[in-house]
Amino acid sequence: MLSNTGNFLLFINIFLSSLIIYNSYKCLKTKNNIIFKNIYQISLVQSTLVLICFFTLIAAFIVSDFSLITVYQNSHSLKPLFYKISGTWGNHEGSLLLWVIILTIFSFLFLITNKNHSKHYRLYTLIIQNFLILGFLFFIILNSNPFSYINPVPKEGLGLNPILQDPALAIHPPLLYIGFVGSSIYFSAAMASMISNYSGRFFAQSIKSWVLISWIFQTLGILVGSIWAYYELGWGGFWFWDPVENASLLPWFAMTALLHSLLVLEKRNTLYFWTIILCLLTFTLSVTGTFLVRSGILNSVHTFANDPSRGIYILIFLSLMIFASIYFLFSKYRPTNDLINSNSKETFVLINNWFMMFYLITVLLGTLYPIFTDAISNNKISVGPPFYNSVIIPVVIAFLFFMAIGPQAKWIRNKFSNLKSILLILSGAILINFTIVYFFKSYSLISNLILISSLFLIMSSIFDIFKKSRLSLPRIISHLSFGFLILFIGLNHNFSIEKDFNLKLGEAKKIDEYEFALLDLNLSQENNYKAVVGKLQVNDSNTMKSRILYPEIRIYDNPQTLTYEASIQTSFLGDHYLTMSNIDRSEYYNIKFQHKPLMIWIWISVILLSFGGFLSLFKNAKNN
Amino acid sequence: MQKIIKSIIVLLFIFVLLVFYNSLYRETNYSTDYLVGNKLAKINLKSFDDNKIYTSEDFKKNRYTLINFWASWCAPCRVEHPYLMQLSNEKNLKILGVNFKDKKINASKFLNELGNPYYYMAKDTKGKQSVNFGIYGIPESILINNETTVLKKFIGPLNEQNLNDIKEIINSL
Fold this sequence. Notes:
The complex is a heterodimer of chains A (624) and B (173).
Chain A: H1 2-28, H2 37-62, H3 69-74, H4 81-86, H5 92-113, H6 119-142, H7 167-182, H8 184-196, H9 201-232, H10 243-268, H11 272-294, H12 308-332, H13 345-377, H14 385-405, H15 419-439, H16 445-466, H17 473-495, E1 497-504, E2 508-511, E3 514-525, E4 529-540, E5 545-549, E6 552-556, E7 561-565, E8 567-570, E9 574-582, E10 588-597, H18 599-623
Antiparallel strand pairs in A: 1-10, 2-3, 3-4, 4-5, 4-6, 6-7, 8-9, 9-10
Helix pairs in contact in A: 1-2, 1-6, 2-5, 5-6, 5-7, 6-8, 7-9, 8-9, 8-11, 9-10, 9-18, 10-11, 10-13, 11-12, 13-14, 14-16, 15-16, 16-17, 17-18
Chain B: H1 2-24, E1 44-47, E2 53-55, H2 56-60, E3 64-70, H3 75-87, E4 93-100, H4 104-114, E5 120-124, H5 128-132, E6 140-145, E7 150-155, H6 160-170
């Protein structure tokens, strides 16, 4: 029943998308500047039906309808309701349906919120977006149908991978999808802009909100993924330069560059083609990321199944997108005479774009290089954190300095009248850094420079708040929080402590200033897993504080898996992080203890960063 | 000049897409192809039902043995099960089922429901023994002869084609 409903709705949506394309095409030929009423109506019906289609799948997960293969493979009747629901998008098929929802709803909202823009531009955007929707609908129906039926109906499902049964991971995919699938709308808009010759600042105004929305959600999605990795994977880190993490970071770099170049296009009506390239690049990188992750070329928790046929489909789709983009770009490209003064705000925005492109290319190379060497020379290599850290970190220092100075510059022609205050702020930053070194501990030259540059950015941004003449709160908050983010990451990196040792029940061990004792081990039976819970006492002789931590070893039944749950005590000053794992044929447990200072401030900085984006969105909506 | 730049850009994209295409069909995991033609390392498997230990000697008396790694929680194992049932009727072949990281009660239920094709049944509760066979996922199957030389290795569920291959090998003499 649910299977039939779902399939029926999918087919209806194909029909509606085709109808929108047909009507839009017809409407293009009319002379007046009015879009047919029925296009709005069909778009609304399309969005509603695609939502109902998704709710049908959620319903199948809630009632554990194992006649659907997707439900059978990714759910289990004993699973808590919350994870039954999040299981809907915790798999390849269901998540593709989420793709289509975002494509469709963004398409509809773009149509109704841009009424003061040119008809042709809006209609072409709608047509291209609906071609994207059709592409994904066909992919779902032909290859990855979440409503596929299984007969005989299994009595029980296979369960969801336990490490995915987590509140952070329940919200991580929707956030990230709004981010990178949302970028589809300005991909379509950029194509439409080239086709309909609707360029310049009007184009910038029409997509600005959409770039901001996708940027905010992409930022939050990456944050939630990092928080999950931090407490679930048990390594105590939050960013591993894993190819899959990189895949989410690539569109983020492009979006950030785009946000800045849009400012120039909006204010000065230049950099049009560069902005178009960034629009096209963002969504292309999103689809490339999806291809790498879903096709199984990169192995990770996101690789739902190693199925080349999926890869082929996404690859064809990606190729079409790329070549269509190149075709329009090449045929519409006209060299423009963008006169930009080398000392102006425009130049600083361009510098931001160069940095973003540098990061993008670095991460892209690091991610793709192993795939290329394997394909070309059969040579398996892996590019890990040392590469990224050594290439990216030194460049971040210069980036932060420009980020602090750039906003002070004026449009068209700038004159630095505030050189004195810049030097004053820089001296302040250096002073604070060396105070930290003097009172706590010394660290490497690079770390010193990172801290100085981030402090410089923070202080410059704070000073900006008091300059009432050019107050741009969204920008100040975003730049300020980025400075804080780098500062806290730097301090966290320099002051983290890690101890790794083995302990048995009843034993105590003293390592440096810490004393550890494994006081107790308890077996607890939860709804969908059993857990061995350790009770560990950690005494810190420096602070004279004693704390109890409860790390867990969880044994899941469906599917049978062992996971190690970190016990984390968070405070404003830092986290105490402890994991425990069993050692085969031994009464000893391996204990990994870490003290990670200012951890929570890293998360807060990213939340603040996206809040800056949100304020900008709010301001933009108010102005328009 | 512009034409050259445009051509380079297009060629670059074609190159990247071709590499992607090529990568789709490459084994991203490490390969265990080298096992074929080699003798299996020392076999030391605990019986599923009692304390008996299976060693290489147990399999030297069979002309052919198919070692199948399976678990009740593994969905593709259900898919390949009918083929194993068919193979269990072959007179030149004995099947050894290695129950991988499974619960005995669930495994027994699985066999009661779908039938038991295994002549020998062993267990590898912790999944450590299977590593010695070059197994990195289940289901996987290894066909050996009476000298415990690996003739063929099947990664993933057995299919119709694999079934015919196995039949051809074991009935070739």
